Automatic annotation (TrEMBL):
Listed Gene3D superfamilies: 3.30.750.200
GO annotations of cellular component type: cytoplasm
Domain of life: Bacteria
Localization in the cell: Cytoplasm
Similarity section: Belongs to the anaerobic coproporphyrinogen-III oxidase family.
Source lineage: Bacteria, Pseudomonadati, Pseudomonadota, Gammaproteobacteria, Enterobacterales
Keyword Cell membrane: no
Pfam families attached to this UniProt entry: HemN_C, Radical_SAM
Protein task: Probably acts as a heme chaperone, transferring heme to an unknown acceptor. Binds one molecule of heme per monomer, possibly covalently. Binds 1 [4Fe-4S] cluster. The cluster is coordinated with 3 cysteines and an exchangeable S-adenosyl-L-methionine.
Source organism of this protein record: Enterobacter agglomerans
Entry keyword set: 4Fe-4S, Chaperone, Cytoplasm, Heme, Iron, Iron-sulfur, Metal-binding, S-adenosyl-L-methionine
Gene of this entry: hemW
Listed InterPro entries: Coproporphyrinogen-III_oxidase (IPR034505), HemN_C (IPR010723), HemW-like (IPR004559), rSAM (IPR007197), rSAM_sf (IPR058240)
Name this polypeptide is given: Heme chaperone HemW
Amino acid sequence: YQRAGINRISIGVQSFSPQKLQRLGRIHGPEEAVRAAELAESLSLRSFNLDLMHGLPDQSLEEALDDLRQAIALNPPHLSWYQLTIEPNTLFGSRPPVLPDDDALWDIFEQGDQLLQAAGYQQYETSAYAKPGYRCEHNLNYWRFGDYLGIGCGAHGKLTQPDGRIVRTVKTRHPRGFMQGNYREKQYDVADSDKPFEYFMNRFRLLEAAPRDEFSRYTGLSEQVIRPQMDAAIAAGYVTETAEQWQITEKGKLFLNSLLELFLAEE
């Protein structure tokens, strides 16, 4: 893999608590996560990432911070720190657990962010922290609405065509079907009405400002298409605007879902 140019791996730790891992349905334990991180560091890869989750069922502030401390002790150049979200058609979706309330989540985020910054990590995306020089270029391409190939079972791809169409593909999820040559499960064009939401859903996850000309470059649409929605976002204090760029505000980060809802296509 290194000879092929792969220089970074990501390890799905999620938590260092055996009880929390079991509750999440994970089959690994904290010892395996530590061994994987130590192995990653020994491989002489340029970087490795640890995935952690917070806002877990019945998780206390101290438990969330302890997960972060253990992750930091493994010295990963990059940390992804996601808040648990409940998805439909999952066990948690059908039987919702007791999750920390909004005040508890804010305390976890605020103190966790301070802990990460004190350890030398810089936040550059809603859930991503990196030491200087170790931002993930691979994921930055996603968040900037760039194109990418989906390779392998269940992989998603996005390719902009010469005529401006944006085509999304989903590869066959089941390994048996994939090995039999049934590679593509789904392919569709992104409707023009959906492009603004898709663009900002990715772009506003980044803390860096978004150059205004990139909206038209990546979507093929005129900025006038989203002028009313952007004016509403600015009026709500979610975004600031200059002649060159849009910048998400602290309020916009806190109310990201409300900001993004402004760009949803009308039914």
